[in-house]
Design goal:
This protein is α+β, with helices and mostly antiparallel strands. The protein has one domain. The protein has 2 helices and 3 strands, in the order H-H-E-E-E. A 3-stranded antiparallel β-sheet has the order 1-2-3, with helices on one face. The protein is globular and about 30 Å long.
Length: 97
């Protein structure tokens, strides 16, 4: 399976948000504030009013990087294909904040 270059698929502003969010996940892990895989941190995609970045289900916080973050919309549908399957942890009418 050929991996897609996520950085080439997103705006510079979104890439910066991805890098910063991934850093937040790593810091949370570094300071022992994560609860395995059943929590998450999100950020809004710059320039979008209904898209967010979130970690893929199943990765530990110390495994998160900018390229593995999933872009979802308010219906919890993935809007950027990833090598990670979108989780069904959120229903289409309720995001897990």
């Amino acid at each position: 399976m050929q991996m897609q270059n996520v950085r080439a698929m997103v705006s510079e502003a979104e890439w910066e948000a991805r890098v910063e969010l991934a850093a937040a996940y790593r810091l949370i892990a570094h300071y022992g504030m994560s609860d395995m895989i059943y929590n998450h941190i999100t950020t809004a995609v710059p320039g979008s009013h209904d898209e967010f970045l979130i970690n893929p289900f199943g990765l530990l916080y110390e495994e998160i990087n900018a390229s593995c973050l999933i872009k979802i919309n308010l219906a919890a549908a993935c809007s950027l294909p990833q090598r990670y399957q979108c989780s069904s942890r959120c229903s289409s009418d309720q995001l897990c904040w």
